[in-house]
Amino acid sequence: MIKVTCLGAAGSVTGSNYLIESPSGKKVLVDCGLFQGGKLMENRNWQDWGFHPKEIETLFLTHAHIDHSGRIPKLVKDGFHGQIITSPPTAELCQIMLLDSAHVQEMDAEWQTRKNRRQAKGEILPLYTTEDAEASIKYLHPVERDRIIEPEPGIKARLRNAGHILGSSILELWIEENNESIKVVFSGDLGKRSQLIVKDPHEVFDADYLFIESTYGNRLHRPFEDSKQEFLEAINYSVSHGEKVMIPAFAVERTQEILYILGEFHRQGLLPDIPVYLDSPLAIKATEIFRKNKKYYDEEAQAIVDKGSDPFDMPNLQFTEKTEESKAINEKPGSAIVIAGNGMCTAGRIKHHLKHNLWRPGASIVIVGFQAQGTTGRKIVEGAKQVKIFGERVSVKAKVFTIGGFSAHGDQNDLLEWIGNFESKPRVFVVHGEATASEAFAKIIQERFNLSVHVPKWKERLGLKPREVAYEEPREPERMPDLETTMLNTVIDLEKELKALKQRIKAKEMQRAVEEDDLDRLKFVQEELQAILS
Ligand SMILES: [Zn+2]
Predict the structure, then answer these.
(1) Rounded to two decimals, what is the model's pTM?
(2) Which residues neighbour ligand 1 (ion) by CB within 5 Å?
(3) Coil, helix or strand for 286?
């Protein structure tokens, strides 16, 4: 029997990581992403892998986003020496993304260490360093999509366009067992139909097992044209007040889509005559990679190129790579559009722009991407009156525009339509979604297609049988043998932490540090606990 263990992006949207064990004992991985969004989630990055990285010879990487690729340097540091099979643009994007992620890890560890020193505590080491990231890059093994390869005897694979970001792939896997082959498909992150720049997701017709993402499994996006209109409104709103438009952007794909739309506004004469800053060294590098990889564009983007234009350019666009250039943006009064990372406002230059502008009536913040629980971006979207930036409370007086239609993920309809292509009746596992989204989506798949659907939990181990029994109602899925132990240990740790918190509150040590934010977080933890208990 083939075993698949869901070691990440199960019951959550980050940390994508699946371990596949073939009957002959071979182990391969699909994705190796970073857990993001709050301390509880990020702690998972430090836990045991659930396998030994030395045993893995092949890692299939669906795309470059850090929640799919961000633990690769740690995997290499911990002993992985195999090949990372991925598309050529993903390999190129990964090189800049992993180095950037290492830098973020180093900065975080440094900040934490400084904080610890003030409390006479020890040094904190980063999850991985720039050297680790550099060392991991040589394991990237680019393979063009649409070809069947056999990276290991008994395991065949093919990457297909997932239409999510440049180079993003669906993974088709054929695993041999007793002269029979099981086909497992991982959707990866699926783009929506008619997304900018990239082609629509490839239609897949057969599989025995399908692992499908569900980021927006319970939601519908607003029509794209409405979103563009809203974006224009946000720009005009702040221009009329002489204030800035801040766009927290994900460096890869979303940024290029924003530039693409601004370019379109410019060609249509709709863009006011104000500076547009791309204020993110990472996004600048990513945009260069997009400019180079024209052969992966869809027809519309190609048509712009054919007319002699660059889809990501306009006359007022300035790339502010240096820190001084970035700082100068807030020294100049007047309107401007500032695109800065990161997309969930948890790090990067956007935090400086928020500090300078979030409290200014007339300014605007345009949310164009998914905001995970626990992030500053999520708090802003949910209407927080204040958020904490660099340890300081900042009032939210800027107008918040949440524009869902720019998502690089398909919504419920897009995902259902894609599943509808399957002519075989695969057993479906719904992953890569917050629990409520995955559960709701699973129910709809079941009702609409009469397929057997399951939402695996984090660390759940699934048994996949050969084709002829694949359609049977599954028996109870196997659990990780150490789940109870892990849970018990976590509870013990939690008890200690709660006790420490109680003492500190009582001793009034935290009087200055306790914020509304902290209370929100605590309430969130409490709700999660109640969900576990119910
Ligand atoms: Zn993604």
Answers:
(1) 0.82
(2) 65, 189
(3) helix
